[in-house]
Design brief:
single chain; about 350 residues; 11 helices; 12 strands; four-stranded antiparallel beta sheet; Rossmann fold; about 30% helix; alpha/beta; eight-stranded mixed beta sheet
């Protein structure tokens, strides 16, 4: 399968009064055409910084230390602001997590939808209006002709997020970046928005990068998952490999803390806090919070061990000389339930 986007050795730091914060510390990934890649991790792990680098919207105190972001054979990191005008919003679009901050509260929905079309597609006002109304219908906005004239405050949170999705689709992008698009929504609306994103991806053959702190959110929409911690990918693989065959203690912790309707055991939590990335730890960044940490984890950073052609994890537990350990019991029970639900056709 062809790659839509390729990221190599990306390192990004931020200048602060206390020193340089090493937010992204050397990551590599490919986004394949037509797939959904989920990047999962706690707040501050570097997920959103990565996507902002792709779109060229890093803040002024950001420093790209190294790397390449290749799209259509060109390195986006070499682009000036004017070069992004033909990329941002038209080739690569983004859905942000808070629809109220993404929409102009004093502008009607219609002009916010047609703005990108008029700017990037050089179509007439009537053509842009017709296309906008169609897209509103496509994303599930009832009575789009009437609601085209309304203001954001006249829409519910879920409907506002549908409008944000419609704006992201207005210029027919190839890549859609979803940055925590369901965080501010209740569980029922979350499910509807996820279903919508998945349907649109299939209909338009989009390539999707889905950013979230919650593995449960991407259980039924991701093709591949990259688990990010302290600015690095600590495990990556197909969705099935991550949910059923996870190998890194951090991935175990994320899965164990994910509630579901059948949870009987006490919910797990991840103790401690992420490391200070002004002075990243010497060895495995997760070692201080991991009950499985060995002495080598405090001294030497683990390489990425190959589990299969598609599954890798950066943990010393995979070294041939490491003691054999089992995932936590809460996770083993969860995996058993997930498999039973899949067998019954209920998804993860």
């Amino acid at each position: 399968m062809a790659n839509e986007l390729t990221v190599r050795d990306l390192k990004i730091s931020f200048r602060t009064a206390d020193g340089m914060v090493q937010a992204v510390r050397g990551i590599d990934f490919d986004l394949q055409k037509g797939e959904t890649l989920a990047i999962v991790g706690e707040s501050g792990s570097g997920k959103s910084v990565t996507t902002k680098a792709i779109l060229g919207i890093l803040p002024g105190n950001a420093v790209v230390e190294s790397g390449e972001i290749l799209y259509e054979g060109k390195n986006l990191l070499s682009y000036k602001e004017k070069d992004f005008h033909g990329i941002r919003g038209s080739k690569i679009s983004m859905i942000f997590q808070d629809p109220m901050s993404s929409l102009n509260p004093i502008m009607r929905i219609g002009p916010q939808l047609t703005e990108a079309m008029l700017l990037k597609e050089k179509m007439s006002g009537a053509e842009a209006r017709a296309k906008a109304i169609k897209i509103m219908g496509d994303v599930g906005i009832p009575e789009p002709e009437r609601r085209f004239k309304q203001y954001p405050f006249e829409f519910s949170g879920g409907m506002r997020q549908r409008i944000v999705i419609a704006i992201a689709l207005a210029a027919d992008p190839d890549i859609l970046i979803c940055d925590e698009p369901t965080t501010a929504l209740d569980v029922t609306i979350q499910a509807q928005i996820l279903e919508l994103i998945n349907r649109i991806k299939e209909e338009r053959q989009l390539s999707v990068i889905f950013i979230t702190h919650d593995l449960g959110v991407v259980a039924n929409i991701a093709d591949r998952v990259a688990v990010m911690y302290a600015g690095k990918f600590v495990e990556w693989g197909t969705a099935g490999e991550i949910f059923y065959e996870a190998a890194h203690p951090y991935t175990w912790a994320l899965l164990s803390s994910m509630p579901d309707l059948d949870t009987e055991e006490e919910l797990a939590y991840i103790p401690g806090t992420p490391p200070n990335l002004i002075r990243p730890p010497k060895g495995d960044a997760f070692a201080a919070r991991s009950p499985y940490a060995m002495q080598i984890d405090l001294e030497e950073e683990p390489p990425a061990f190959c589990i299969s052609d598609t599954h890798y994890a950066a943990t010393w537990l995979l070294h041939p000389d490491a003691p054999k350990v089992e995932p936590p019991e809460v996770l083993t029970a969860r995996i058993k339930r997930m498999k039973e639900r899949e067998q019954n056709g209920m998804g993860r």
